[in-house]
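testing teh design pipeline on a random one, pls ignore if ur not involved
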């Protein structure tokens, strides 16, 4: 079986690297070629071709696929993958060309934007759109993108059932084409250098760590976390809030707002903003963390930050939305709060900080998730879907990953 995977491979914590590891464990004889950006130089993975550039990628990928004769082209779709937002529209002629050439295609949609969320605030959060466009036009564009993908692709993967429901119910995708395969969790503990731990511990003044990890963007709800934390720190001054993650160019105003809020709340001595964290140091921060907080205001994708928390068995405080509602059982794996609720976040932080037995129980329960969500299992499920597609099917029913209290 020859597979072409269209993807980025940087940073080294990229989804496709973990999936490749899982696929190789599922079938060592699987022949995988990577088509990646011409600007990416990859030396640690074999069979990588620097194929595509931002505006010409449909024709570049199609031409290379005709040369390589793959059985299946698997595209990892993110809205910023090929360049500015408008380049997502170029995916449709690529899918059409591959379909006309009788090459099967599978698309993993790493983000599914709920139609109801597309409003003025969402447009501002998206940031990548430099021109003011009426939200009704943007809704039409999203409908066209998702419907065309589900029509032209042989099958689609999403990571949670909430995103499958969005595609089927609101974007009218064929339910037979949309497969749910969760975001994986690495079941091997990453090695952490002692000197690196000591370096970060000194920076955190040897205090206990509450960790937020991820890009600093408006939808992540950090302003609500800061307001809650400002109340908590009065009682627990042996803690530090670590905000770890980079800033996208079009969200610079938001980071200025967050920095200003920290000063206004007079908690500068109790908050550390690390900026971008190198891949090899991500796991150090998780090892140092007492708990992980993910206060998102809305959900359009599964969270790699949550996968890392599960891997390191760290108690999670998150908002009761989308993927978090499916993946965290409130009171068993962590605590869920209503989005934008400062009081609920404050109570959850105090409950977690003040009860070591509860933290240990959460860690123990998260440990049970690791084997079922291991990249080995994700690789097996993905490989099974490859086989199904090549036999002429479209839908491989994975084990249901059910939203708590809800039927799928």
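output:
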């Amino acid at each position: 079986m020859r597979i072409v995977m269209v993807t980025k491979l940087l940073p080294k914590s990229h989804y496709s690297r973990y999936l490749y590891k899982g696929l190789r464990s599922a079938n060592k004889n699987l022949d995988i070629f990577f088509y990646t950006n011409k600007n990416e130089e990859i030396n640690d993975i074999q069979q990588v071709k620097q194929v595509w550039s931002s505006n010409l990628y449909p024709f570049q990928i199609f031409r290379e696929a005709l040369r390589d004769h793959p059985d299946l082209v698997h595209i990892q779709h993110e809205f910023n993958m090929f360049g500015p937002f408008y380049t997502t529209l170029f995916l449709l002629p690529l899918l059409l060309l591959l379909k006309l050439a009788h090459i099967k295609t599978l698309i993993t949609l790493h983000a599914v934007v709920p139609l109801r969320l597309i409003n003025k605030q969402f447009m501002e959060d998206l940031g990548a759109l430099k021109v003011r466009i009426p939200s009704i036009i943007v809704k039409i564009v999203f409908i066209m993108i998702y419907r065309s993908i589900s029509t032209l692709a042989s099958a689609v993967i999403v990571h949670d059932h909430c995103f499958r429901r969005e595609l089927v119910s609101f974007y009218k995708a064929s339910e037979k084409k949309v497969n749910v395969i969760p975001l994986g969790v690495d079941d091997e503990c990453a090695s952490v250098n002692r000197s690196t731990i000591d370096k970060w511990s000194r920076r955190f003044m040897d205090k206990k760590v509450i960790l937020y990890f991820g890009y600093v963007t408006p939808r992540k709800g950090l302003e609500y976390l800061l307001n809650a934390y400002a109340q908590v720190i009065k009682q627990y001054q042996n803690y530090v809030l670590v905000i770890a993650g980079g800033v996208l160019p079009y969200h610079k105003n938001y980071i200025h707002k967050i920095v200003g809020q920290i000063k206004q709340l007079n908690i500068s001595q109790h908050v550390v903003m690390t900026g971008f964290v190198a891949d090899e140091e991500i796991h150090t921060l998780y090892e140092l963390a007492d708990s992980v907080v993910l206060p998102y205001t809305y959900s359009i994708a599964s969270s790699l930050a949550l996968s890392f928390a599960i891997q390191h068995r760290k108690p999670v405080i998150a908002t009761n939305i989308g993927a978090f509602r499916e993946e965290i059982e409130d009171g068993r794996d962590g605590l869920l709060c209503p989005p934008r609720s400062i009081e609920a976040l404050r109570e959850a932080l105090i409950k977690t900080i003040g009860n070591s037995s509860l933290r240990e129980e959460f860690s123990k329960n998260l440990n049970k998730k690791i084997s079922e969500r291991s990249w080995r299992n994700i690789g097996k499920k993905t490989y099974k879907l490859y086989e199904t597609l090549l036999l002429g099917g479209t839908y491989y029913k994975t084990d249901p990953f059910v939203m708590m209290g809800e039927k799928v």
